[in-house]
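REQUEST FORM: STRUCTURE PREDICTION
Request ID: SP-0412
Submitted by: Lab K.M.
Chain count: 1
Length (residues): 256
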Amino acid sequence: MQIRVLGCSGSIAAGSRTTSFLLDDDVLIDAGTGVGDLALDELARIDHILLTHSHLDHVLGIGLLADSVARQRRRPIRVHALPATLEALRKHIFNGIIWPDFTRLPSAERPLLEFLPFSVGEGLTFGDRRVEVLPAEHTVPAVGFAVTGTAGGKGAWVFTGDTGPNPALWRRLTGLTIAHLVIETAFSDDEQQLARISSHLCPTTLAQELSRLEGEVAVHITHIKPGEVDAVMDQIDLMPMRHHCAALTTGQVFEL
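STATUS: Completed
RESULT:
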C-alpha cells in the first residue's frame, strides 16, 4: 500500500499545490490543485475520492477531474464525504452555474460522479485497505482519516485534515499504532489569533495537541502557506515535544 503526496500547501504559488493524496492508484484523499499533476491515464484510474471538508483548496480538482476523464470512464467516480460536505458541493459547485452537475451528466442513469455520505467513526473498505473516518474541528463540518491495511501492516497513516484543537481525535487515537501522522499547522505563532478564529493550528497549539499523542511518532506538517515553511518549521523546532516533526513535501511517498 502506497500513499503519494500530490499537494500539501495551504495555498498556491509556483511549486506549491493544495491538499491531495493518492492512495495506490485508485483512491484520492482530498482533491486540491495537486491532482492536476497526474497524467490523463492516472486520472482515469481514480475510482474513489475521500473528502475531509468542503473548502475550495480541498475540492476544486473534482469537477475538472470528472471533465478530463469523461471519455475514459465506464462507471462513476464515487465521492465519499460527510452529508454536509456533499450538500455544499451540490449547492455551490455542481449547480450548473459554477460547474456542470456531473452527478446527472452525461445522464442521470450514467453520471460521472456518485456522491456517497459517510459519518464520523465509520470504516470504509477498498479492497485490502481500510479507511476510518476521524473527527476534526474546523469552521465547516470536517473529518480526518486513518488508513490501514485490512491484514495489519506497519501501522496507520493518519491525516487530521484541517483542524483546530481536537480532543476527540486524541481519544480515538489512544492505543492505535500510528506509522505516520500528517497534521496541519496553517499559521505561525505570529498569527495565533487568526489560527484560533479559523480553526487551524499554529506551532504552540500543535505542541499542545501532540502532547496528547502517546509514544514517539513520525509527524509530518502540512498546510503551511507558500513562503512560510521555514518560519513555521523553525518555530515548531523550538517547541518541547517527544515526536519528530518534519515538513511534508509534494512528491513524498509513504509505504505502508
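NOTES: The first helix runs from residue 40 to 44.
Reviewed by: T.R.
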